[in-house]
UniProtKB/TrEMBL annotation, chain A:
<feature type="active site" description="Charge relay system">
    <location>
        <position position="244"/>
    </location>
</feature>
<keyword id="KW-0378">Hydrolase</keyword>
<dbReference type="InterPro" id="IPR000209">
    <property type="entry name" value="Peptidase_S8/S53_dom"/>
</dbReference>
<protein>
    <submittedName>
        <fullName>S8 family serine peptidase</fullName>
    </submittedName>
</protein>
<keyword id="KW-0645">Protease</keyword>
<feature type="active site" description="Charge relay system">
    <location>
        <position position="100"/>
    </location>
</feature>
<keyword id="KW-0720">Serine protease</keyword>
<dbReference type="InterPro" id="IPR015500">
    <property type="entry name" value="Peptidase_S8_subtilisin-rel"/>
</dbReference>
<feature type="active site" description="Charge relay system">
    <location>
        <position position="60"/>
    </location>
</feature>
From TrEMBL, chain B:
<dbReference type="Pfam" id="PF01590">
    <property type="entry name" value="GAF"/>
</dbReference>
<protein>
    <submittedName>
        <fullName>GAF domain-containing protein</fullName>
    </submittedName>
</protein>
<feature type="domain" description="GAF">
    <location>
        <begin position="11"/>
        <end position="160"/>
    </location>
</feature>
<dbReference type="InterPro" id="IPR003018">
    <property type="entry name" value="GAF"/>
</dbReference>
<dbReference type="InterPro" id="IPR029016">
    <property type="entry name" value="GAF-like_dom_sf"/>
</dbReference>
Amino acid sequence: MSDPPWRRPAKAYTPGVPAWGAMTSTQTLEEFAAVPMAGVSPEWAWGGADGSGVRVCVVDSGVQADHPLVGGIDRSVTTVENDAGVVEIADCAPSDRAGHGTACAGVIRSLAPKCSLSSVQVLTDGKTGSGAALLAGLSWAIDEGFDVINLSLATTRTALSARLHALVDRAYFRRCALVVSAHNRPVPSYPWSFSSVISVASHDEDDPATYYYNPAPPVEFHARGVRVPVAWPGGGTIRSTGNSFAAPHISGLCALVLGKHPWLTPFQLKTVLFLCAGNVVGRFGGAHDTPR
Amino acid sequence: MTLPVDAAAPTERRLLQSIVEVARHAFGAAASSIFLVDPDAGDLVFEAVAGEGDGQLVGSRFPAGTGIAGWVAASGQSMLVDDLRESEHFSGTAAASTGYVPNSIMAAPLFSGDACIGVLEVLDRGADGVREMADVELLDLLADQAAIGLELLTRLRATAPDQRSDKALRLLAMAESLLENARG
């Protein structure tokens, strides 16, 4: 099966020819399925869904696959620096040095039990790990065509900002929903602050299904992120707090929505999330009406 | 005339110690510690400890990326975990390496510019389970203040010895000429 249009390589640029035009009078464009938004509700969005058929990737510290709350992962890769100093992707044992990736994977699995989970380990080396490895790992995940990527990381390195911006925009146009946690404090950091990602911070309620649209972006959504029971390497759970654990709640939700409506583009998906958020007025008569 | 390279080290030591004492006190915690990232190896090095483990831990190292402090250093994000005793694997590792098994850990990155140079950690906060977000915020504020203090100290260490030696040499020269004049 050929790649869908949004994953095809860009056409070569020919000088003198408008780059972004289409001669619709002579060439018929491919037909697109439209999504009527009027009927969007939580029931429409994810009612009865279990994440089947959706491929989710956790870009983090690795994932312990045999943790009961993770329930297996399909692919586990890590970032390694080759002799030339270039960071490459290599298959690795599904394990987790820090516990953080396993925690995120467990949250996603708890919401979308039937989704496919994969892991890219980018936090392997405190010296060079967060920069080159993050770019390489994220780039790999986007090229692999995962439907949802959970990135519970942010970098404060302004030197990475332009490359990250280009990367997350590529994800957006390739229909890869990039769910990114906001930095835990108000410092300039990336890529959560870019508009082509779905950015998430914490609210302090206990319900894993409750989430809100943030009326004062850049961070767009608030999901459960305080005292979250999360899977931890070794087999048990711990309670953990941080935006890192809010993002996988939205990733799981995205997996549910995309399982039911796989044709949604990232901006449509974000619109669905917005329309179904706990504080959006109109569907139930007022803000803060419990939508479920 | 040259000053020893680590002329400011005692001050740095006192600054780090004061930070962990304040952090421990602010949270009524069993212990607080600071790791600095070794710029060459990427390891996390225990630099100051208040409370449990204060005698033996300073100077010990963890490989980059290990555990919660490693994740905080690599990601630049703060983090709070409770119920650590539930996870036997983690507790075993922690116990083996530090001699103290905490039930909760809260850790915040120390930034110099946009690079994470270390981690401020608080073990077993006293106020249990009620102020998570506020606690993380407070720890972040303390970490920022600590990082600024460290940065100033590092900058001072980079510039001060020369200025001080210049001044000392000038004073010495002045004294010598005064003595010569007095004799003459």
